[in-house]
Amino acid sequence: MWNQPYLETCCRSALHRLTLVGQAGRPDGLKDGPCLRRLQGMGLARQRPDGRFEATAEGWDRHATEIAPKRERA
Question: Does residue 55 lie in a domain region?
């Protein structure tokens, strides 16, 4: 049974971008800012003291299971 909150498409994209930038983080004030704050409220992202957002361990796990799961090659 699925028990995780639904991620809107825009928030899924924002979480994916967080994983792509890694430790550099995403700056505040971009168009995906509302999604980054929503992800933060869900515990999937956090805003660092320097103002940049990064994925949390929970965010990385959610990304791995829902957004970009590893698939076996045929």
Answer: yes
Distance of CA 49 to the CA centre of its chain: 18
- Counting the structural domains of the chain, the total is 1
Decide if 26 is inside a domain: yes
The domain of 19 spans: 9-67
In tens digits, what is the pLDDT along the chain, a chain of 74 residues? 456 778 888 999 999 999 999 999 999 999 999 999 999 999 999 999 999 999 999 999 999 988 887 755 45
Burial of 58 (0-12, 13-18, 19+ CB in 10 A): middle
Q: What CATH code is carried by the domain that includes residue 50?
A: 1.10.10
Q: Which residues contact 26 (CB under 8 A, 6 or more apart)?
A: 14, 17, 18, 32, 36, 52, 53, 54
pTM (2 d.p.): 0.85
